[in-house]
Amino acid sequence: MEEEKLYDLLMSSPFESLSSKDKAYVLQYMTEEDYTLQRELMMESEDLFEKEGALIVPDLESKSAPLAVMTRKESEDLPWFLAIFIWRIPAYAMVIPLLLIGFLWFYNGFKQEEAQPKETTKVIKVPELITQIDTVFVEKEVPVEVVRESVKIVKVKVPQVSNSNNNIAYLPVELMDKSGNMDAPINLDSANSILSNQLKNISQSATDRPELDQFRVSVP
Amino acid sequence: MKHIQQRKPEAFNEMHRRYSKRLLHFFYRMLNHDEARAQDLLQDLFLKLVEAPEKFDTSRSFKPWVFTVAANLARKEFRQPISQELKEDYMSSGENLVDGLIGPIDTKIFKKHLRKELLELSYEHRTVFILRHQEKLSLQEIADVMDCSLGTVKSRLFNANKKLAGKLKIFKPHYQNK
């Protein structure tokens, strides 16, 4: 306890400046000279430390080595594709692979030149294309309508007026009696003239139409 | 430190700028003025910080925490007592440094021997003395680093001071004559 108080007094003031009470307290444990020597020792020590300290400076290694560790740790925390951008590679680590690649490149080129066979003459016919004409066919559709017309030819049996009994005369209806009397006598002359007129009309109507020539049929 | 936890190199650069020299001086003094070993420990310390920044509680103050890590590293390497031969080596290496200082001859001699006598202090006494008088940490910050009470820090400081003064008294004849 007394050491603490003595130290406080030593730090506070020189012996002459102490109060009479403090002087009395100090003198219980040491002389005035010891007190003054201890104060001077503290001051001399601080002066020595200050002046000697100025002559000692930290090495650069104390800074660069921890910084390198710091950077490495930073790169370890990064994903690999980002970490490669902060790698520090020594110059020789760059130069040696480049020299190796260069050497291999030249060496391979030299070997390829050596491996080439001797030149031989060979005639190769190469078809030469002078011009090229493209032919293009254009198909065009023209709408054509074919119309077929038909003529219905009615074949009728014409009653022949003859003496032969084999000929059967068919009378047209209009030749019959108007009254419908089947028993009334038939005028055959009139019937023949009517029939011939009818046939004439039929043939005439067909021949009067030339567009129907292609469909003309000869009736046996 | 939050930015270092987010792996920002500029944050590390800033931290290095602020603390590297102070931490190096702390290691240098704690490791019997072995500068090469102090440089190695400084690098180890920063490597620890960047490898596991999450170990730092951002609600705490950074300075006491980083000196706690440094003190723990130094404790592993701390050699006490050192051989007389090694002590002489350190003395001779320090002579050039102290000779370069401006001041009266008796002060230079005093400082030379102060360097030597610092090596005689125990780990606890040397740590509190260096943290207080070299790194200018407050008593509370030292208590946080050493994980002890404020009273213990004052007590250790007083005892370290008393021990050094007892050894160096002969180099201050005016105090002896009185």
Q: SSE string of chain B, helix = H, strand = E?
A: HHHHHHHHHH
Please state roughly what percent of the residues of chain A sit in beta strands, choosing from under 5%, 5-15%, 15-25%, 25-35%, 35-45% or over 45%: under 5%
Mean pLDDT of chain B equals 81
For the record, give the distance between the C-alpha atoms at the N and C termini of chain A, rounded to a whole number.
167 Å
Helix content of chain B: over 70%
Report mean pLDDT of chain A, rounded to a whole number.
Answer: 74
Number of discrete helical segments of chain A: 7
CATH architecture of the largest domain in chain B: Orthogonal Bundle
Q: How many domains is the backbone of chain A divided into?
A: 3
Shape estimate of chain A: elongated
Major sheet of chain A: none
- β-sheet strand percentage of chain B: under 5%
Indicate the structural class of chain B: mainly alpha
Number of helices of chain B: 10
